[in-house]
Each structure stands twice: as structure tokens, then as C-alpha cells.
Amino acid sequence: MVTITALTAADRDDWTPLWQGYLTFYESAVSDEVTDDVYRRLVDADVLHGALARDDEGRAVGIVHWLYHPATWAIGPSCYLEDLFVSPDVRGGGVGGALIAHVRAHAVEAGATKVYWLTQRDNTTARALYDRVATESGFVHYQIGL
Ligand SMILES: CC(C)(COP(=O)(O)OP(=O)(O)OC[C@H]1O[C@@H](n2cnc3c(N)ncnc32)[C@H](O)[C@@H]1OP(=O)(O)O)[C@@H](O)C(=O)NCCC(=O)NCCS
């Protein structure tokens, strides 16, 4: 059984190792300044939103972050799911699916018309889950780093 709640200031110490695990998964790192800033914005929940999954014993086992943006093809906003991470020792137990379902429910409540996200083509573990709960858009992702 997993419990998912919105991130609060009190969750910071539980969130940090999951955030670091996520960055390590992507062989990335950000400065403490960025980590502090993103956590403040997640707790403020003005633009960024975040939730934490806890197991039966209250242990933090997963995080998800998302945001809304206006869209030109609909009156309601679109929901972009930016970060998703589950502790390696509980993967395959439904936590990732539950975190996506949490965002979906929040997005419905917010009047959004879709939830979407990106993943690496070869992230077969994540895609096994995504193929079950969503539809691959067929779009190709481009970017200009600034
Ligand atoms: C992607 C990720 C969030 C999924 O979390 P999860 O808690 O394992 O997700 P679920 O248990 O809900 O679904 C995992 C699917 O993987 C499969 N699976 C089964 N056993 C598994 C295991 N031991 N480990 C991983 N996946 C397993 C199943 O197909 C399952 O689908 P099902 O619900 O049809 O059974 C997690 O693997 C993760 O954090 N990966 C590293 C970071 C990452 O890739 N993030 C996403 C970036 S876009």
C-alpha cells in the first residue's frame, strides 16, 4: 500500500535522496542552489507541483514533479510531468504507476486537457509502464540549449 501526498517543507529530508537518485540515474548533477530553489518552488506549488510516495512504514519511496502551461489548441492547460523516480528496491510494485495516476487526477481537477512527458527512447523499464498507462505521441523532441 502506497500513500501519496503533496510535498511540504517537512518532507525535505525524505525528498532529497530521491531527487539525488533521479539525477544520478540521468548521470547528472545540479548545484545545491538549484536543489534549494526547486524544493522551495515545489512547496510553494505556484507553478511547480510535487508529490511524495510513502510505503506502509512511512518510508519515502518515490517522487513526481509536474507543472501546467497554457496551450493554444485548447482553453484548458496542458500538464507536463517533468520528473518521476522510484527507489530501486521497490520498483515493479506499482509505485510509479500510482504516482502517474496521482498527477492524472490532479490534472483532471485543474481542468487540464492532457498529461504528457518525455523519456529516453532506450528507457525500456519506464516505457513498459508508460505503454500501459499512456499513448506514445510519435512526436520527436528537439531543443536548443541556452
Ligand atoms: C520508471 C519508474 C519510475 C517506474 O517505477 P515502478 O514503481 O517500478 O513502476 P510500476 O511498478 O508502477 O510499473 C513498473 C512496470 O515495470 C515492470 N516491472 C516488473 N517488475 C519490475 C522490477 N522489479 N523492476 C522494474 N520494473 C518492473 C512491470 O512491467 C511494471 O508494469 P506492470 O504495472 O504492468 O506490472 C522506475 O523504474 C524508476 O524510477 N526508474 C528510474 C528513473 C526513471 O526512469 N524515471 C522515469 C524517467 S522518464
Describe this structure in words.
The protein is α+β, with helices and mostly antiparallel strands. The chain has one domain: Gcn5-related N-acetyltransferase (GNAT) (Aminopeptidase, 3-Layer(aba) Sandwich). 36% of the residues lie in helices and 23% in strands. A 5-stranded mixed sheet has the order 1-2-3-4-5, sandwiched between helices. The chain binds coenzyme A. Coenzyme A binds next to β4, α3 and α4.
What's this model, at a glance?
This protein is of the alpha+beta class and 146 residues long.
> How many beta-strand segments?
5
| Average pLDDT over all residues | 98
Biggest β-sheet: count, sense, barrel? 5 strands, mixed
What small molecules accompany the polymer chains? coenzyme A
CATH-assigned homologous superfamily: Gcn5-related N-acetyltransferase (GNAT)
Report Rg.
15 Å
Count of individual domains: 1
* CATH class descriptor name: Alpha Beta
Q: What is the terminal separation in angstroms?
A: 43 Å
CATH architecture, by name, is 3-Layer(aba) Sandwich
Taken as a percent bin, the fraction of beta residues is 15-25%
Shape: globular
Helix-residue proportion? 25-40%
Q: Assign the structural class, choosing from mainly alpha, mainly beta, alpha/beta, alpha+beta, or little secondary structure.
A: alpha+beta
Please count the helical segments: 4
